[in-house]
Amino acid sequence: MYASREDIGYDFGDDSKVGSKPIKPNPNIDGGWAWMIVLSSFLVHILIMGSQMALGVLNMEWLEEFNQSRGLTAWVSSLSMGITLIVGPFIGLFISMCGCRTTAITGGILNALGWILSAYASNVHYLFLTFGVTAGIGSGMVYLPAVVMVGQYFQKRRALAQGLSTTGTGFGAFLMTALLKYLCTEFGWRDAMFIQGAVSLNLCVCGALMRPLSPKDLREKYVERSDSEENRAKALSHSTEAIKSNLGEEPEKKEEAANEEVLGSVQHIEIGGKSGSGRSMYGLRLFKTVSQLTVTVRKGFALWYSSYFGAASLFTNRVFVAFIIWALFAYSSFVIPFIHLPEIVKQYNISRQDNVFPLTSIIAIVHIFGKVILGIISDLPCISTWNVFLMANFTLVTCILTLPLMQTYTGLAVVCALIGFSSGYFSLMPVVTEDLVGTKHLANAYGIIICANGISALFGPPFAGWIYDITQKYDFSFYIAGLLYMVGIIFLLIQPCIQKKQSREKSTEEAQV
Q1: Which of 64, 396, 474, 498 qualifies as a FRET site for 247, CA 20 to 30 Å off?
Q2: Which residue ranges does UniProt annotate as crossing the membrane (predicted)?
Q3: Does 299 map to a domain?
Q4: Total domains in the fold of the chain
Q5: What is the pTM of this model?
Q6: pLDDT, tens only, 59-115
């Protein structure tokens, strides 16, 4: 159905100008420090996504503490999860200017601060600001760099690497659920959040491990890709040149020349003024630093702006737009069970079995195997990543629609296991995104996708709580979420077919001419 960008007839150049001259591969690509990047990303997923998947424990505590409606209380969890993903496009701007390492370390500090401040909450609205917004933004500043860095360091085993790193979500959901339950029982939810904030400072260590690749390393990666996909590069060369001409290389060159001239003049003044006073030298150095920072910010903003709004905007890729529409409906179907399953278990009077082995832990554990297995399958040469991605989505939406029909612990456990395995497609999302837009645009493109997922996560749990407040049942919440999810999958099925058809018709017309 679809395997990569050439199948849909769309180009978003990966530097196809790079020649096929053999270059000694960099040991840090697909090996060496790349596995440290996987470890860093794995720990980020444990501390961020895992803890967010365990928020059902705290949600129960907040309901008892503040005595608010389920719809209003669910906004605390959904704000944290939603904002983590919604800020993706703006975090892409930070990455363009500051790099992944600096962005992630800053985000780790902000996330820990959000958890610690939330321990002093006097009402739900206070948690909206401290936990929802502050911790959410901090999480987003760490999460996106963790995903992007894995994509940069891996070429041949991208799906496997992403699968291994994102299994941290499953491990984290299992570990953090047990940890938060224990901390809330022993110390209360306030001290539990304070301790979790201290644990979250380890995100700064994860960010420090994100050593950036040099431009030379990135060029070697592009060369390797060019060698393995030579036919594609030839087919896309004309459109790549057109895109680059639309972006306006000449103005960029002129701007770079102007920037270099400014910095050069500062250096000349600094050298010529060595005989001057120390104060004037300090002023010149300060001016030079500000000038360099200004140049960096302008370049980063120009790259970010051109990706979203320029002539080569990501939104000109119709399949990518369909991917965004899918993301708007998909993530809530995965998040709703984690937030509301503890309440459903209480309603069905199966708390005793759930205390022995929580349903959310079943999802988390099987989710680990799902990510790894789907990643391995997708890396097989005869298997299309896109087809594996679609099959997993079909399985997940079927489980979401089936879950309200199960009212026993065994039935719910089976459905939750299938939800956990099929949701392993999350490890394929960066791979599918990179196939659509290329490594060069991965940070911004994946930022858009997780932003759409964030919108889905933001409104999903409060919507489910609101439906419950009206009907006193969660059944309709799952049915409506499942149907909307199906609409997104249909968009994914239709748009590539239309794109292929248009590409064939265009090729036929050109052949006739």
Answers
A1: 498
A2: 33-55, 75-95, 102-120, 126-148, 160-180, 192-210, 319-341, 356-374, 386-406, 412-433, 445-464, 476-494
A3: no
A4: 2
A5: 0.65
A6: 888 988 888 888 788 888 888 888 888 887 788 778 878 888 999 999 999 999 999
